[in-house]
Amino acid sequence: MSAPEASVQVSFKNRAKTALADRTLKIAIDRTTGTAEAKRAVAVAAFPEFQDARARGRAIKDHVIAHLDHYLEQFERNATASGAKVHWASDDAEARAIITRICLDAKAKLVTRSKSMLGEEIGLPHALADAGIERVETDLAEHIIQLAGEAPSHIVWPAMHRTREQVAELFKIAHHPPPAADDPATMVQSARRELRAKFLGADIGISGSNFLVADTGATCTVTNEGNAELTTTPPRIHIVTAGIEKIVPTTAHALSLLRLLVRSATGGELTQYTTFHCGPKRPGDADGPEEMHIVLVDNGRTRMLANEFREMLRCIRCGACMNHCVVYRQIGGHAYGGTYPGPMGSVLTPVLNGLAGSRDLPNACTMNGRCAEVCPVEIPIPTLLRAWRIRSWRERLEPGSLRAGIGIWAVLARRPGLYRLASRIGVRAIRLFGKGGWIARLPLAGGWTAHRDLPRPTGRTFMDQYRAQQADKGDRP
Amino acid sequence: MTARDRILSAIRAALPQERPAPDAIAAEAKALLADPDTSRPRLVAEGLVDAFILKAEAIGTTIDRVGGMEAVPDAVRRYLSGYGLSLSLAVEPTPALTALDWTGLDTGTTLAPDQPAALGKALWGIAESGSMIVHSGADTPILLSFLPLHHIVVLQESDILSHLEDYAAQLAERPHPRNAILITGPSGTTDIEGSYVRGAHGPGFLHVILVASTD
Question: Which Gene3D superfamilies does UniProt cross-reference here (chain B) (predicted)?
Fold first, then answer.
């Protein structure tokens, strides 16, 4: 059973509980996020200008968002002039229809794909399968989860939930010949051998885009493996899928943002391959596709532009927020149930799937602020998660018991006298459940006491103690 | 109403009605790049060549310095022999390379499936990051940079630029090629447990023959 299917049937709490019980998953998460956190710290320390670069990156994204229509039209003009065909899709269904139509018109049998989270967001893998087209994922991690029949659990390391031993099991069945050993180097060689023929035999190559450059009409991919260029060069047709927020004014702006993106994602300075793709093969070119299609996808982005989530459009998909999130590092990506996991996913999933089915995500946050501290474009993620909590309350999505409890608290909180009386009764009543200095079990507080003991109150409220202390001071000469 | 109209009108509805003219937007965009030194890494050495070498070697690129273009075939032979490879490789059909004397080496312009090495020429290097730049064209097939296990690149010292912005300026001065590629080290992956392995799909070895400036 794949993760997205599971998410429809099972609640977030149950998915999180299952994830927490999975010791292998915890090992896998710790290995990758631990390395990512350490490498980012080294890369940032080696770049004293990082904070200034961050402010500039944020300003570039805000500028583009403030003139989004202008830049999209400029991009469309220049991409068209380069010989590419630009398509527009309001939502995921329109995007799937456009891409499937291009594949069917070309009578494509084999499609190679270079990792793109937007492709996952619009459900491209399923759409291609439904159209009877063989899809080969070429990013190593995407190759692993395609073999496992899973969705990505991280936006940079989609297979980070799998240990090397689990990857070896998959390759042993799928690769011919199977890899000779289960160390990462041998398995990477095996995937290289297995996928080489697919690259060269594909009818269509599909990639995402990290940037759309308005003044040239180029799209930009970044990879460490070199799979994007091997995906987009040999086939007859190259299709790009891109969110409309990916636009930047010029190549120089894109390169400026790249410094932030790569350091924040992997701790590298640049990915091994950064490629600007501008139109199809030119007359006389030694290689390249004959057709290039660019599908610009809205899918909720113009809604975010109009509401309190506009700042989320700055996101450049580095994944630093999840690598530094205490919740993500306990439960991994699949428990979130959406395309995008972690802090940024908890902001985006309610936009994409509706708040009613995903209101647990903005609540599954400790508000420790780590995500906002490391975000390379200064997105105030905790503030945006709080905005979802406020919406959820306004739309009355919480269960009745919770609303009633908060309602009672609100009545007390607005009446200081009554509040103090209730606290006085409360701390004395709670003391009755304690043994020694600690309380192991307390009615209505099972969520707390299931995991740790509660300190036994002293028997007097803070206000009582404060008053007594102030009175003492008054007595002194 | 087309999807294009729907998207553009939704954007316009969300943004202020009074909008600056295109010239003003362009000026604002340009201002965002002003004073780049405040927000980009400093070079790791005084000179461009030294900085380039330090950065390139740090990411696993190997470097062989030669005195002139005529020394390139010997450097290639040295490299292939060092790895115990046969003296056979694909050479990008760019005049600067095809004009050289390849006697004693088996060279072609296409890469056979079992051929481990290809030679190309970079247009520029970047001292900031140890990157090299390749543009697609009639005599620069992109696949030669990605298919072989050993990618050998000729770079002239005089073509080393300081920062990424300097390359952006060069690119802006000419027609944009189909592909403009920054190559920064050999192909690698960290997709299995975050552990770094070279040669994922592209070349596992990136070797630069750095040619001294003649003037």
Answer: NagB/RpiA/CoA transferase-like
pLDDT digits (tens, 9 = 90+) for A134-182: 999 999 999 999 999 999 999 999 999 999 999 999 999 999 999 999 9
Kind and range of the H or E run holding A240: strand A237-243
pLDDT at A9: 59
| Residues of B whose CB is below 8 A from A191 | 200
Our count of domains for chain B comes to 1
Is there a contact between B142 and A233 if contact means CB atoms under 8 Å apart?
yes
User: What residues of chain B lie within 8 A of the CB of A34, using their CB?
Assistant: 194
Please give the full DSSP string across A370-390, using - where no structure is assigned: HHHHH-TT---HHHHHHHHHH
CB B78 within 8 A of CB B51: no
Residue A115: give its domain's CATH number: 3.40.50.10420
Which of A269, A302, A335 delimits the end of a domain?
Answer: A302
> Across the interface, which of A140, A255, A302 has its CB nearest the CB of B14?
A302
Asked whether residue A389 is assigned to any structural domain, the reply reads no
Give tens-digit pLDDT for A50-96.
999 999 999 999 999 999 999 999 999 999 999 999 999 999 999 99
Last residue of a domain, one of A267, A302, A337: A302
Indicate if the pLDDT at residue B62 is higher than 80: yes
The total number of structural domains in chain A stands at: 2
Cross-strand partners of B135:
B180
Q: Which of residues 90-109 of A touch B (CB under 8 A)?
A: 90, 94
**Interchain contact, B200 vs A72, CB within 8 Å:** no
Decide: A303 and A332 in contact? Cβ < 8 Å: no
- Amino acid present at B203: P
**Above 0.90 for ipTM, yes or no?**
yes
Domain span at A448: 415-475
Name the token pair of A353: 């799937």
The first and second tokens of residue A79, run together, are 């991409």
Structural domain boundaries, residue B88: 41-211
Judged by a CB distance cut-off of 8 A, whether residue A13 touches chain B is: no
- pLDDT category at A7 given cuts 50, 70, 90 is very low
Contact A285 B22 (CB under 8 A): no
- Is residue A456 within 8 A of residue A438, CB to CB? The reply is yes
CA distances A264 to A9, A35, A44, A247, A361, Å, are 34, 12, 8, 20, 23
